[in-house]
Each structure stands twice: as C-alpha cells, then as structure tokens.
Amino acid sequence: MTSTIATKSQALPPGIYCPVISLYQITSRQEIDLVASYKFFSYLIRGGVDGLVLAGTTAEAVLLSSEERKELVKTARKAATDLGRPDFPVVTGISGQSTNESIRLAEDAPAAGANFGLLLPPNYWAKAVTKDVLLGFYREVADATTLPIVIYSFPAMCNGIDMNSDTLSELAHHPNIVGVKLTCGNAGKVTRLTREYKHGQFGVYAGSSDWLIPCLAGGGGGCVTGIANVFPKCVARLYALWNEGKVKEASELQGLVAQAEKACKEGIAPTKFGAAHFAGPPAGITDEKAFWPRKPYAPCGEEKASWVVKVMRHLVEVEQGLPDAV
C-alpha cells in the first residue's frame, strides 16, 4: 500500500553519489591534503556525479577527526561553488557510536556546507542493539538536527546489525529521515520500500553500482558507489542510459562497471590504488602516496595492484571517450 506521509521538505536528489576517498599529505602523520582534495572533488564533479559523500566508509571516516571532517566538507563546497554548482549535494557521515556523538557531528555539518547526514546504526555492543534501540537512536538524532538524515545500512561494517524493510519503513515516517543507502545489497528492500514510498517521501539507493540497474528497475533513486572515485563518467553514463530508456546499452555498460567494481569490494586499499592509478593523473594528483590508506593500514602490494589494474582497465577507453559534465 502506498504511504500517505508528506513529501520531505529536503529530499535527497536521485542520482549517482561518490563516497569520496580521503587524500593525505606525504608526511609521517599523513595530515589531510586539502589541496589535493579540492582537485579531486572538482574532478569528480566535472565527471558527472550527482553528489559527493564525505566521511563515509570509503573515506576511512573512523580515522578522521571531527575537525578534518569539517574541513573536507568546506573544501568540497568550495570546489562545487567554484565550478558554478553552489547547490551541489554534499552528504557527510555523522556516524557515532553514541547518540550524543552523532548529534554533535550532525550539528557541525551544516555550517561546514553539508546538505545531508549519512548515519550508520550503533553497533559496538551488537547484542544490545534491539529494534527499539535502532528506532530510538535514529529518531533522537533526527529530532536534534535540521540536517536531513540518510540511513546507512551496512551490516558487514556494523557487527552484523541489519535493518529490515519494516524497521526502515517505520523510520521513513520521521519528517527528517529522507532515505537509505543499502550497502547490504538486498534488492528486496528496494522493491518493498519503493512500493510503499515515493522518492520524495523516502529515497532508496544501492550501496554500489554493480546492482544499479536492478535498483533502478525496482524503483530506487540511484546509488552511492566507490567505483565513482575511479571512473565517475562511466557510472554517470550508466545512470543516464537507463533514464533515457536505452536498456540494452545500459545493460552492457552495467556489466563492464560491475567487473571493475569487484576490485572495490576487496577493500579501501584497492579502491584507493585504482583511483590513484586511473583518476589521479587526470585530476592533477600525480603522487600515488597521497592515495595510500591512513596508518596503520597499508597500501596494496604489487600483486594486488596488478590485479586491480587488470580488472579495471577495460573502462579506461570508455571513460576517456565521455565528455565532462561541467
């Protein structure tokens, strides 16, 4: 049954969102490199993504300070404004293990330039996270801020905490909870939620682009995908082909994108290496060390790096053949 809840006052626009990797200075402390970040944000926007997601899993959010998060949002907003896109959607992670910490991060975000907050469930003591705890957590954070909240469902990163479609549906009724990113990969949640809610009431997004067409076919609004760090034009083109009704061409490109994205499934280091190798030079960032994960985590070894190049390189010609969006 279609819900009669009101359309959200600030719905998350449909489209392709890039969960942007964090770039670091080449020093022993790996301070955030805001100059390189500005170049990379600009590159992604020109590549045609519809929004940026900062301080998420791909950004190594748990390794970032609250001040670094704010500076990255400010830099992303400046990059968008300088490209003539002052209203470009910027989503930032506000996930804390406590309600208080999540509220504090949500309070910081709008002044820095964020439009939306992406929020994982609490998960430190997984056995204590009941449905009532989940509902109370999201509602209390959403009550405490004007920042519209996007639920982030990622059981693999949350001690197995998974929110079923009934729980998500209950949260959709909150006027300040505007959508969900499904990194759980559950297409059934897409079709159940989109049967009940229109996009403006509660947007539903795939958590990767290797099932973008299934998500869109089920009524979803797009995806948040790590491969957009490497080939933003390809993912934007895939989304455009589907919306233009070019199903055969979209399906062919979907397969190519899915093959490349399997490298991103291997973790942050392979994703960052792929971005350094393929996207770094055209973005104006030529030192691969800027893309290394933050310590104590290590960059790809030679064998893994060679494999990443092998599984991604088929998209190079496609990416280079597509025009800039800005």
From TrEMBL:
<dbReference type="GO" id="GO:0008840">
    <property type="term" value="F:4-hydroxy-tetrahydrodipicolinate synthase activity"/>
</dbReference>
<feature type="binding site">
    <location>
        <position position="58"/>
    </location>
    <ligand>
        <name>pyruvate</name>
    </ligand>
</feature>
<dbReference type="Pfam" id="PF00701">
    <property type="entry name" value="DHDPS"/>
</dbReference>
<dbReference type="InterPro" id="IPR013785">
    <property type="entry name" value="Aldolase_TIM"/>
</dbReference>
<dbReference type="InterPro" id="IPR002220">
    <property type="entry name" value="DapA-like"/>
</dbReference>
<feature type="active site" description="Schiff-base intermediate with substrate">
    <location>
        <position position="181"/>
    </location>
</feature>
<feature type="binding site">
    <location>
        <position position="224"/>
    </location>
    <ligand>
        <name>pyruvate</name>
    </ligand>
</feature>
<protein>
    <recommendedName>
        <fullName>Dihydrodipicolinate synthase</fullName>
    </recommendedName>
</protein>
<keyword id="KW-0456">Lyase</keyword>
<feature type="active site" description="Proton donor/acceptor">
    <location>
        <position position="152"/>
    </location>
</feature>
<comment type="similarity">
    <text>Belongs to the DapA family.</text>
</comment>
